[in-house]
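Dear all,

This email documents one entry for the complex benchmark we are building for the journal club exercise. For each entry we list the sequence lines for every component of the assembly. Then comes the predicted three-dimensional structure of the complex as a token string, followed by one or two observations. Please use this as the template for your own entries, and keep the labels exactly as they appear.
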Amino acid sequence: MARYALRFTALGYLAALLIVPVGLVARRAFADGIDGFWTAITTPEALHALWLTIVIALIAVPMNTVFGVFCALAIVRRRFPGHGLVNSIVDLPLALSPVVVGLALVLVYGRTGWWGSWLNEQGIQVIFALPGMVLATIFVSLPFVVREVVPVLREIGDEQEEAASTLGAGPWRTFWRVTLPAIRWGVAYGVVLTTARALGEFGAVSVVSGRIAGRTETMTLHVEERFQSFDLTGAYASSVVLALLAVGTLLAMTLLRREES
Amino acid sequence: MNSVAQPAPSLARRRSVPLSLGITTGYLSVIVLIPLAALLLRSTEGGAGTFWDAVKDPQAVAALRLTFLVSLVVVLINAVAGTVIAWVLVRDQFRGKSFVNAIIDLPFALPTIVAGLTLLALYGPKSPIGVNVAYTVAALVLALLFVTLPFVVRTVQPVLLELDRDMEEAAQSLGATSFQTFRRVVFPNLFPAILSGTALGFARSLGEFGSVVLISGNQPFKTEVASVYIFGQIESDNVTGAAAVSVVLLGASLVVLLAIGGIRRWATRHDG
């Protein structure tokens, strides 16, 4: 009896909070039929937003992946002063408001920021342009690869690396032949999480982008802009595109979890 | 003998990939530390007095108070709901369980702005079920419950999976009711995980922006949370005010992160 009560509580909670609302948005996106949905996601602004979102992810995700592996190696395999500090700083983007991240970037790279006037003289625009949006996305999606790779590195230990080294392999050879193959599923899982976060970032990008339709508008910003312009079909349609990307993420996560175990 | 217990530092250095430390500190400095330093300096530019004046602005105080109160309510609901969901996912068997298990991560994968829009569709002015909570504190609670759903579930679930069921069977064979078994045997084992999941959710709630921006209505003194207040101040060029409240949020995030670190150390010590 108690078992069923718990089951229905849990499933009812999930239905009310997750399943029914998401289903409803999917239905409303097709309120004007497939044609209406298609028209809404193929406007020049929507297509540009999708393109920009992908470009930002294509820069931010590889950078955070390379950094993530190096950082995890430094945390697990090296002893250095400030070890705990590095560990905490890596977690910070998880706990920090994206709006605060955006503001902090504006204060460095903006017109009145630390490096703003110098960058301006060089003709480089960071804020209200692509570089700022990339920096914001890198900031918010920074922890994921590190957090996935650190436990894997701890678990595999360093005996094999030591063996390779004793047999005369240099550090890079050891890394490519021994370490990387051993941590590959952890890296892959981290990449999936990083990508999801990068595609979905809103607050930080909203602050640094200036939200110029057709120029600095990502998919998430486009959803908000369509909603504010009372174009609900447009907002719902772009939301469905983002939701499909999210479902893709979930599938990848489930497959990788199975592969790992 | 010492050399056997600890590998010589030269060997350790030779084995690890060169530059890993340099890349880590350089990248973290450019991406995270320099911007946060700029934020700190900007908020205190006019001295401590200006900082406090900006934080004590009535609208800022109202936004901060609302943020902390709502986050507290949300994590309390989360602690219970998350534990129940984790329990059902580990101990119960039903059709479609793997589907339910997979969608727990949906709030993580779904962009926050879509989350807000989604909730607005069901619980907003055009609600098909006639429930309209848009632009109220209840809407804030809903949005934050949505985005923080995975935290407690995903921290409790692995602990519950590892939990030795012999202890529960022993308790029951000694005559404990199932509620007593849960309270005396299961709960103490889950408690550190519930606590750290709750703390993660709390940190997330304090800074949440995307999911609340459409559904809360952002009325100052009523439904405006701290992140929305900061955004508004940036838009109206009050950068010092925005930076001061940002520093308060940053401080709160640091405290929560330290607390989580403490909880984890405490939990591993009690594991042995």
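Observations: Chain B touches chain A through 88 residues (CB under 8 Å). The CA atoms of residues 63 and 229 of chain B lie 7 Å apart.
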